């Protein structure tokens, strides 16, 4: 009986998804697209993590500087991070000297592992609240989420947290490129940073915006998100890199901002008429037709209306 119990424990221990051997590399061929001078983006699929996309869904980016390469949001797994490194090597043989993680959601930063393994002295920047959340368990939770949703396609990934805090007003100068950090309170989450490169005319929005894809707002604020997108637009950048969806001009920020405004103001109007959130949804949907073809609109619009209702309600007290 004792032998049986030991065998059962061993089988359970070593078959746990987080302890499984490393999963294969990404199957699909992704290419880095140049969006500005020495600035490249690898646009991921728009859907949620799945076995088909192997968990890759965000927009990793990199900037080639005189000193080395700066990576923004290296992706959701060690496999995605390795793909990002492969794309960098096609452009330059310079080392990666810095990484920026735009917020706490693991689909954007679990690829840190691959970068650190290749460049052990790399600085990884993030907002202090993100670093705190990761250390308190958010990283482990995201490992579980990615493993579950991809059926093990991210196996071998481990938590590598940022090691260098940045906040509103931080300016990190690397190889002749100034990276201005913007953080104006709660937005998509309360850990978001946007990265403005004035000399390049580029701003990285993180998940403050999706373009052609809806984003969850369970950890965020409609009004805060709108405020941050207006601030991004005020930089007069020419190139806007959203967390998900194609890189574009200012429309990559204005389209999502307009959606958030339409939901919030619509809910506020109906709230003042004493309607509940479930009564508001059918009345508001026709006013949101402009975004109905965006990925995940149908699955998320209901939760957006409910979340906006709670935010409007809270503002009344």
Can you tell me about this structure?
With 317 residues, the chain is an alpha/beta fold. It has eight helices and twelve strands. A hairpin with a 2-residue loop joins strand 1 (33-36) and strand 2 (39-41). Helix 2 crosses helix 3 (112-118), helix 5 (222-234) packs antiparallel against helix 6 (251-272) and helix 7 (277-284) packs across helix 8 (297-315). The longest helix is centred in the middle third of the chain and has 23 residues, at 128-150. The radius of gyration is 20 Å and the shape is globular. Residues 1-18 have low confidence and may be disordered.
Summarize the structure.
By secondary structure, the chain is of the alpha/beta class. The protein has helices at 2-15, 78-91, 112-118, 128-150, 222-234, 251-272, 277-284, 297-315, and strands at 33-36, 39-41, 61-64, 69-72, 96-100, 123-126, 164-165, 171-174, 177-182, 194-197, 202-210, 239-244.
């Amino acid at each position: 009986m004792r032998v049986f119990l030991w065998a059962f424990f061993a089988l359970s221990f070593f078959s746990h998804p987080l302890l499984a051997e490393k999963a294969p590399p990404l199957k699909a061929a992704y290419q880095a697209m140049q969006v500005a001078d020495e600035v490249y983006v690898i646009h991921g699929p728009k859907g949620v993590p799945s076995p088909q996309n192997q968990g890759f869904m965000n927009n990793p980016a990199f900037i080639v500087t005189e000193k080395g390469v700066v990576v923004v949001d290296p992706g959701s797994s060690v496999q995605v991070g390795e793909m990002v490194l492969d794309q960098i090597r096609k452009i330059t043989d310079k080392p990666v000297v810095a990484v920026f993680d735009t917020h706490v959601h693991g689909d954007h930063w679990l690829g840190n592992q691959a970068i650190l393994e290749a460049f052990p002295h790399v600085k990884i920047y993030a907002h202090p609240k993100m670093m705190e959340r990761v250390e308190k368990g958010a990283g482990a939770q995201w490992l579980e989420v990615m493993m579950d949703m991809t059926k093990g396609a991210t196996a071998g990934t481990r938590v590598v947290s940022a090691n260098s805090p940045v906040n509103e007003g931080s300016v990190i100068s690397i190889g002749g490129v100034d990276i201005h950090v913007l953080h104006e309170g709660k937005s998509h989450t309360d850990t978001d940073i946007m990265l403005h490169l004035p000399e390049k005319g580029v701003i990285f929005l993180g998940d403050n915006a999706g373009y052609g894809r809806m984003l969850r707002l369970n950890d965020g604020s409609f009004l805060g998100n709108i405020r941050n997108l207006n601030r991004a637009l005020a930089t007069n950048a020419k190139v806007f890199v959203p967390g998900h969806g194609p890189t574009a001009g200012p429309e990559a920020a204005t389209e999502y901002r307009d959606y958030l405004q339409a939901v919030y103001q619509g809910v506020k109007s109906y709230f003042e008429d004493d309607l509940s959130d479930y009564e508001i949804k059918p009345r508001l949907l026709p006013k949101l037709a402009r975004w109905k073809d965006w990925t995940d609109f149908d699955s998320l619009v209901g939760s957006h209306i409910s979340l906006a209702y709670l935010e409007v309600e809270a503002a009344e007290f």
